[in-house]
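Render this sequence as a predicted structure.
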Amino acid sequence: MDRDGFISYSHQRDRELAEALQRGMHELARPWTRRQQISVFRDTTSLSANHDLWSSILGELERARYFIYLASPEAAASRWVQKEIQFWLDNRPPERILIAVGSGTVHWDPSAGDFDWSRTTALPRMLEGVFRAEPLWVDLVEVRKSQKYSLRQPEFRSAVAALAAPLHGRGKDELDSEDIQQRRIALRLLRGAVTVLSLLLATSLAVGGYAWKMRGEALDRALVSASQALAAHSMELADTDPRRAAQFALYADEVEPTGESARALTRAMDANSGVARHLQGGLGAAASYSGSGGDAATQVAVSGDGSTLAYFSDLGGDAERDREVHVYDIREGREMKDLRAQWPLGGGALELSADGRTLMLETSYNRMEVWDVRRAKLLRTITASEGRELAQAHRRLHAYAMSGDARWIAATYRTPGDEDTLWLTVWNARTGERVDHRRAGGDLRLSFTADSRLLRALDTSGTGLSTWDPRTRQWKNAGPLPDIPIADRSVTLSAGATGTVLFGSTDRAAAELWDLRAGKRLATATGSLGHAALPADASGSVVAARGKQVALFDSTLRRPRTLGSFAWPVKSVAVSNDGRWVAAGSGDGAVSLFAADGAGFQRPLPNEGRLKAGELAADGRIAYRSGPEGTELWAVSDREGGLRRLGRIPRPMRAHDTAVAATSDGSRVTVVDEGVFSTWDPRTGKPVREEKSFDYRSGPDQGLRLFYLADDIHVVSAWDSGIHLIDTRTWSVKQTLLPEEGPYQLLAMSGDRRTLAAVESTVGAVHVWRWSGEERFEEVMTGETPPSSRNLRVAVSHRGEKLASVDSDGRISLFDVGSGRAVLSSVVEEPGLPEVVFSRDARTLTHAFSTDTRSGLEFWDAGSGEHRGEWVLGAPAPSSAEEPSLQVVPGSDSEVLTLDSVGTLLSRSLDISGWRAKLCRIVDDPLSKADYDRYLSGLAVDAPCRA
């Protein structure tokens, strides 16, 4: 069936308005005897959900007579909308584009014969210069603001009539009159039918209500079951195919949020923590041209400045897949125009210039193409030799390199008539001129330095390293190689100035990192390393494939950090000069982009003092490092730049009988040391007033706690005589809570400094008080933890609405302060510091764990106590067993801060809606038809990331 119109819009912004427009055009002037006169397509209502989304949309575009663009700034920026407009411009006349402005601005400039793009925000720039005359457009901005989407409203009715008139092939006024006449006929018939239907209504309501209730219950059960099945499959895929794990987790949460879907999202976030974008899914099968053991030719390249990624893949020879070089703008996070180029069977050379504007691609028969990436234009073709006359094995380049400034291309290859000889040639990439030509003299690997000043040629047959200077066009022998067993090794040259080389591992030898200029081995790897890339910076890091994983190694080839995984072995790796951006492709054609800095899943914060795990106070507000001569102090903030130095006080602090707290602005700190209170100005290191000594007796081994209240005047602490509220101006005790029970109380303060909680460490009595602001606490809850081992720590949420207690068996008791309801966690915490931390919104509880082999964060639902899973962070091991490897403290909003044993301070979000948004940014593809039919057959579920 042909369509009269196709509505293109932003699902994130204008879903309701688009639905109203579609409904209005269907209803306007509709005879009462017919369902509708025209057919307008809108994808969320007109597509069966089990179709492949883009191919179905493409089919609907081909069937449509008119393109109705619901304009808004969000629609103009949507890649889906842009693809739909581009198809229409490529295949249909622009005169059949109708525009309805829902938000933003549109201004036509009659003198220029085009839109005024300096004032137009609701249209994409691809429409610039398209229209010869001002197209039909209607203004729905005020209608959208009023939310009055009824044909009884004059403004909405007028806009719908203007858009529907071309589809009906009639004038607007004629169409409007016809609609009024049809409504009058329908009204007369309706009045007659109402009397008859009223008699049947009472009976049908009773039967229908019951049936509807049963249907609703069955549908709810089906949704929960589908969500659980999707979540379970997501968990199964997390280690082997993180891209699909994210897809299934997102669908599980979209179908029905459950505890299982929350765990699947947590695991998907962990598996994709280093992913910036999954650009292409794998075929999941061998390449057809190589038989059952073959892999798809997949090649990736990243520009030196990290702005651009290029990639191609055979994808197993699937006829439905295109064979073009795809380009992705890393900085803008969008796909660029594909390059209509063909690589040789089995793949070939792919290089980008440092700025990402020029691309070199090997094509069939020893030829190379140079492309302008921004214009998607072929600049020239360079022929190395007449490859058609060579044996099949010699019809490709042996080694290749392009300089970062895109001026020079070097390659080794064979020629007809002398196929036993390798030739080395350097071309001027801008003219195609051959500027140097000679016998290769051995099995070479080629690389230009990042500054394009030298070409390095490493002879892996053992002759040595040579360099070519583009300015003098002269070769220089850098000397023989050290005694390195090179046979059967992969060789990766760095573009950096140091001349670093990675020799890959074999069955008999480990991978080795060498500085060839100094003739020195830098490191030896402990495991197998395959395809690799070396950043040009001086960090010494290495990106390498380990089977199906891509990992980032330090300069010692130790402590690998996994960036991501694939379902098939990694076949190609590329990295930007600074090492931040890493691209990889797998044997079944999957391509992903990784970010070494966390890809937005985590945010590094400054830590100039290089504080380590264990040096943050348990409440997360202050950090300190004490020595014999005094104590350095820092304030902790994820909004004001990480750890902000407050100053130093000339007083050492011991671990057990000493505690410190700071005012909200950090201008004063109060210290209690074996019952002696003192207040200091950390900026000057001077005391603010005389110290005060209280009778003190050390309690059980749980350490002192000290907290400032919201007024920055009063502090709270506990020892043998009770919990004391003290005025720091006079050192007078204003209130004593639980007299004589202080030594056994575990204290915690809420983030807003208004709620105090105490849990008795042995019998588990729980007390919660709220600060009244009148120098007193009022008790708001009492309770008990379940009978268990000794309690070790207590935590309170930011606003004091929830409380958590941890016992020595690792069990967590959770309390709702308002109702007093208590639940016990379903999973005990792993070994680590006993502190637990609430997210600021009190929805999630977090604990930092560390064992001999791994460390990370684990999560619980703070309402139900349900375990949500864990993130394995791979924090470095501490220098001694007494030091923790990871510490977690509260952050702002839904974030927490983690600090490891080498001083890495990171902010991480615990917001599930934020997790969904981040996963949608890296993989927004809908499920395949096969997967949809398997898990969601019979259910109408929107793609979770369609916007």
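Summary. The chain has twelve helices and 63 strands. Confidence is low (pLDDT under 50) at residues 46-51, 290-294, 316-321.
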